[in-house]
Known about the structure:
The protein is of the alpha+beta class. The chain folds into two domains: about 5-35, no CATH class; about 55-150, Immunoglobulin-like, CATH 2.60.40. The chain has two helices and nine strands; from the N terminus they run H-E-E-E-E-E-E-H-E-E-E. It has helices spanning about 20-35, 115-120; strands at about 55-60, 65-70, 80-85, 90, 100-105, 110-115, 130-140, 140-145, 145-150. The strands form two sheets. Strands 3, 4, 5, 7, 8 and 9 form a six-stranded antiparallel beta sheet that branches. It has a three-stranded antiparallel beta sheet with strand order 1-2-6. The termini are far apart.
Amino acid sequence: MEAATAVKSNSRLGQSDALSGFQWFAKINCTLTQFGQDQVDTPPLRPEFPDLAPRNLVITNTNDVVALKLTCPGNPGQNTIVRGSKPLSQGAEVCKDFRILGTCPAPADGSADITALYTARYGAPKAGTKVYIQVNQVVDGWESLPRTYSAIVPTAA
């Protein structure tokens, strides 16, 4: 309970408060379980998160075969989580409905291909729709702040 007093809840309507010991225990252990790691009894210290490897979302459409790739100058490692939303109207400016797609694959030639992760969940997005992808890191049950990318699926070239 003492360690939880230093952990704040996510801000809602500009308000944030310390978590209870139970809330923090549940938050850390649910996150660990969700990603196949062992639960803990002792609260882990807040880690220093390295810079996120994914920098941008690029969508291509070659002969009606859509590919989604994250530009990654470095290896994202096993702790980078990719979340996605269903394809939206290209006029959508904000997306808040993300689902876990999996961990970011290792990049090849500076790009991590997330097409299989995305299409397994939502199918191939149609030309003219907008795709939102969110990435963050998970270390010892702690999650870094997410970074969100979006791109419109181009017409077939």
